[in-house]
Design brief:
This protein is of the alpha/beta class and 305 residues long. 64% of the residues lie in helices and 11% in strands. A five-stranded mixed β-sheet has the order 3-2-1-4-5, with helices on both faces. The longest helix is centred in the C-terminal third of the chain and has 84 residues. The radius of gyration is 31 Å and the shape is elongated. The model has no long low-confidence stretch (mean pLDDT 83).
Amino acid sequence: MGAQLRVYKRRIRSVTATKKITKAMEMIAASRVVKAQRKVAASAPYATELTRAVTAVGTGSNTKHPLTTEAETATRSAVLLLTSDRGLAGAFNSNAIKAAELLTARLEAEGKQVDTYIVGRRGLAHYNFRERKVAESWSGFTDEPTYADAKKVAGPLIEAIEKETGDGGVDELHIVYTEFVSMMTQTAIDSRLLPLRLEEVAEESSSTGEILPLYEFEPSAEDVLDALLPRYVESRIYNALLQSAASKHAATRRAMKSATDNAGDLITTLSRLANAARQAEITQEISEIVGGSAALADATAGSDK
């Protein structure tokens, strides 16, 4: 019985140590998600206004440009998947990977070749384990991405969209990331970055009652689009990286809170079992003492006779 009590006490110490770790990780994630939310909010106006500027150029001119003109027969697409470098975030990475696989299957069903680009070690490990080809990957900055990181990711994608498909270029650019809705809700979504859907942006502006501003193009609409193309892609990728980082921290906080609560419940259960084992051990010792005392009394009474 003593051995069983020692096992319970050892498990309680182990779970208590784990609870301290998960609680600390929960608090760290909670502080990081607040900072990430602020960065998302700060980056949104720039990305929105830049998209409106591109829309104005595209709708106000007849210039054919990869940023705004769809290919007559698209044959090749690029998919950028945003995951995290670390786990312990519940279904955060698996949901993003699943969304990317669904998008890839849909594009392939349309007869398009898909080039996959990945941000984050978790997504890269998933594709490497299944021996799937990855065009390029990046890691090491998913928790706190900067605009410089977004430029680094956007570079090869901009080169691919500017090339002809015969030279390794692509006709479309899609991005899969986790949108931060709230502390409790994060949704994996896919969005087409290029070519820009001008109709959707115009409809969104009209639905909110906003009027797209008028622009004068200097020196030409094509030159303006050439200048806006990298800025547009970089800003959208940067915003998606921030959204993904905020979502990851929120998912980590939720997962660590659940782990902490489960550890607390397990400690309570183990404590009850340990108390029951200790009580049983005490009862057994009392029984042995009473039995021994009775046997000694019987032996003493027999010797007196």
